[in-house]
């Protein structure tokens, strides 16, 4: 990843705050396979970009609307988007 893009990455706590969820919720989303970090540093820090923040907000909005996380995950796995939010 180039230096310019790397500057736009934020760590998990800041990403959760920016997306309007708790750090624990974001960790859970990662654990159950709803998304992947944009990049993992050599020291294991999970970093996220703006596209990932938008995906987290979408997951929260769908979940708040009554969709269970399992259904949201299945929707993403049906080929509409990959786990980083990129259309296939």
Structure description:
- By secondary structure, this protein is mainly α.
- It has one domain: Multidrug-efflux Transporter Regulator, Chain: A, Domain 2, CATH 1.10.1660.
- The chain has five helices and three strands.
- It has helices at residues 3-7, 12-19, 23-31, 50-64, 69-80; strands spanning 10-11, 39-40, 46-48.
- The protein is globular, with a radius of gyration of 13 Å.
Can you tag this structure with a few keywords?
88 residues; mainly alpha; Multidrug-efflux Transporter Regulator, Chain: A, Domain 2; three-stranded antiparallel sheet; 3 strands
Assigned CATH class: Mainly Alpha
H and E order? HEHHEEHH
Q: Which value, in Å, is the CA radius of gyration?
A: 13 Å
Mean pLDDT: 87
Set down the secondary structure blueprint:
Layout: H1 3-7, E1 10-11, H2 12-19, H3 23-31, E2 39-40, E3 46-48, H4 50-64, H5 69-80
Antiparallel strand pairs: 1-3, 2-3
Compact overview of the structure:
This protein is mainly alpha-helical. The chain contains 5 helices and 3 strands; from the N terminus they run αβααββαα.
């Amino acid at each position: 990843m180039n230096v310019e893009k790397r500057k736009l990455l934020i760590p998990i706590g800041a990403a959760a705050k920016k997306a309007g969820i708790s750090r624990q919720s974001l960790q859970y989303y990662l654990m159950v396979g709803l998304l992947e970090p944009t990049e993992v540093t050599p020291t294991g820090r999970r970093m996220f970009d703006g596209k990932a923040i938008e995906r987290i907000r979408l997951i929260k909005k769908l979940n708040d609307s009554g969709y269970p996380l399992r259904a949201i995950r299945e929707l993403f796995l049906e080929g509409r988007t990959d786990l980083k939010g990129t259309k296939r």
